Amino acid sequence: MSKANLLDRRSVVGSLLADRKDAIAVGGLGASTYDIAAAGDHDRNFYLWGAMGGAVMIGLGIALAQPKTPVIVITGDGEMLMGIGSLATVGLQKPANLTIVVLDNEAYGETGGQASHTAGVADLVGIARSCGIANSQAMTTMAEVEAFAPDLQDVSAGPRFASVKIDGANLERVLSSRDGTFIVNRIRGALGFKPI
Amino acid sequence: MHARADAPSEHAASWPEEIFAILQRFDVRQVPYVPDAGHSELIERVLGSSSMRGIALTTEEEGVALLAGAWAGGQRGVLLMQSSGVGNCVNMLSLTQIFRLPFLTLVTMRGEWGEFNPWQVPMGSSTEAVFELSGIKVLRASHPEEVREVVEAAAGQAYNACTPTAVLLSQRLIGAKVFTK
Fold first, then answer.
1. Is B65 in Cβ contact with A54 (below 8 Å)?
2. What is the pTM of this model?
3. Is the domain B10-174 a CATH 3.30.1460.30 member?
C-alpha cells in the first residue's frame, strides 16, 4: 500500500530533538535507534539494540524516576505492537513528563518490509487513547511535528502519544554505541549519579 | 472461591511485612507487579506506601524493562510476579546482563508442593532453570523464619553488587491454593 506525502523519518526525529534541552530520548530497537543517532549523539540518548517491545516501559521507568525531566520514547510500529500492553500501563500511571512517538511505516523495515498490523487493522492512536492516554494524535505533516516538538518540554501535561506516518524508505544506518552499560551509565552520569 | 491452606499465622511479623521493611531499607522506589495471591499482602503494603510506587503491569516482561529505565533514572525497583510469569520475561531478561542491572525479583511459586492445577506444573518446574540460563542468581525461601535473611541477602547482592537475583518464595511457604466449587 503506497500513500502520498508520507514523512521522512529522519526529518521527523531531527525536528523532535532539535531543541531537546535536557530531554532523555529512548530509541526503540531498529531504525528508530539509528534515527536518534542520526540526530546527534547525546549523553541522554538511550539506544536500544534489542528488548523488542520494551521501549515504552524503559521510558516509563525513567519518567517516574525523573519527573522533572522530559522523556521521549521514539519507536516503530512493530516495536510498539510487541509491547502494546505497555500503553495501558502508561495510561494507568499517567507520567506527565512522558511522550511516546511512533514512527509508523506500517512495516517491519529491518527484516524485509513485511506488513505490520498497522497496515491492515491496528489504529495505534485509537489504542493509546482507549488505554487512557487522552492526548493521542495522528500526525501527517511536518508542520504538526514542528508544532508538537516544544510540547515535549512541558513536564506537567503528559503523557502524550503521537503516531507519525512515515515513508518506507530504508535509510543508511547511523550506528550508535551498542554497549548497554556505557549507554545507561552515561545517562546516569548526566543525571548526576556516580558509579557504584 | 479460592482459599489458602496452611497460611502461616504464628510468625511474629508476617513474612510479607518483613519483605516490605527490607525493601524500604534498601530505598526501593518502583515496584512493578502482576498480581499473585501469594504477593497480595506485600502489594497492599506497597500501594499504601508513600515512598514506593506500585505499578500494575499487563505482562511481566514490562517490569523488566521498567526496572532498566528506573535504574537509568536513578531509582531501585523490584519485580513481583508468580512463577508462570517468569516465562513471559525471557527475552527481556537480556537487559539484566546488557546493563549489568541491579535487578531483583520476588517470585511466588506455583506448580509444586501439593499443587492442584496441572497447568501450573510445567512452568513452575522450569522457573529456576530459566533464571539460571538467563544469568540470574536464584535464592529460595521455603519457611517463614528464613524469608528475611534470604530476601536481605538477595537485595544486598542485587543492589550492592549489581548481581541480578531472583528469590523463589516456595509454595510450601505460601500454602497450596485450594480450589473449591
1. yes
2. 0.95
3. no
Which residues of chain B does A46 touch, with a Cβ-Cβ cutoff of 8 Å? 72
Provide the residue ranges of all domains of chain B, joining segments of one domain with +: 10-174
Closest chain B residue to the Cα of A188, Cα to Cα:
B72
The CA distances from residue B28 to A155, B84, B146, in Å, are 24, 24, 21
- What is the rounded distance in angstroms from the CA atom of residue A144 to the CA atom of residue A148? 6
ipTM of the complex model: 0.97
Residues β-bridged to residue A99: A72, A160
Cell of A98: 512522558
Q: Where are the domains of chain A?
A: 9-190
Rounded to 5°, the CA angle A156-A158-A163 comes to 150
Q: Is B62 close to A57, i.e. CB distance below 8 A?
A: yes
- Per-residue pLDDT of chain A (196 residues), as tens digits, is 445 579 999 999 999 999 999 999 999 999 999 999 999 999 999 999 999 999 999 999 999 999 999 999 999 999 999 999 999 999 999 999 999 999 999 999 989 999 999 999 999 999 999 999 999 999 999 999 999 999 999 999 999 999 999 999 989 999 999 999 999 999 999 999 998 8
Q: Is A147 on the interface with B (CB under 8 A)?
A: no
The highest-level CATH class for domain A9-190 is: alpha beta
Mark yes or no for CB contact B30/A64 under 8 Å: yes
